[in-house]
């Protein structure tokens, strides 16, 4: 019997993992040598002839949508991402209510992509812009299959969740800071609504929806790849650039002037609605909501990160909001 190395990290029990491995051995056309869990429902598989990623999807629609979208994306000229491998049978792998697809493994560089480096921030923006430019041709094709993105609605829901979580958050963050953040959120949402249509008007693209640093991958050949399309939607490029700005601002020390040096983002800094949106504390709300939902907020490393984001950066963010307000009255 072939010896196989099984390395699993995550919430699934050993019994589930062993059943999954047995299922794969029966279904795939290539003998498996090693399988290791990367995160929930995502595994790296070493087979006899190649390595690949095994990724789970909650429905056949989600699996098929991503598979077709990535194929179409490459056809319109965006090559810096992965492809699905045709290792399955005609239908996708279905194991215990989860559909699994086999995705190309991209050999990574030892030097990881990070927003800490200016060069990487610029490369990430350039790649995101190229992604939008190429996929604009696909919007009509996927209208109806991919949902439209509603920036205000998403943030209103995030705010409601944050408010429900306040009894926990108040144990770690003083009320004065919480109250001011809620004032920022209210000012931001009212400003966006006043500038009605800012996130609806203009050209439409397929948004990536999660432009965190871990979704930009530096390959072994040093090229940057965009990965993980679980949150794609249709909207204006502003929403992806807004999220990107929020992701890199901590590394710019919350400087509005430095943010304006990024041409892809600077193109929207003359829009009042975009300026209002920059004030929304989306990262703080998102991370606290997630930590409380997943009950990770009592982990020392996690709570240290949350408190640093919320309290440690507070005065810099406070000055950033003041910069935004000054810019709006110019």
TrEMBL record:
Name the SUPFAM superfamilies on file: Protein kinase-like (PK-like)
A Gene Ontology molecular function term of the record: transferase activity
Q: Does the keyword Nucleotide-binding apply?
A: no
Q: Write out the coiled-coil annotation as residue ranges.
A: none
GO cellular component terms listed in the entry, alphabetical order: endospore-forming forespore
Tell me which UniProt keywords the record has, alphabetically.
Transferase
Which superkingdom is the protein from?
Answer: Bacteria
Q: Which InterPro entries match?
A: CotS-like, Kinase-like_dom_sf
Q: What is the protein name for this chain?
A: Aminoglycoside phosphotransferase
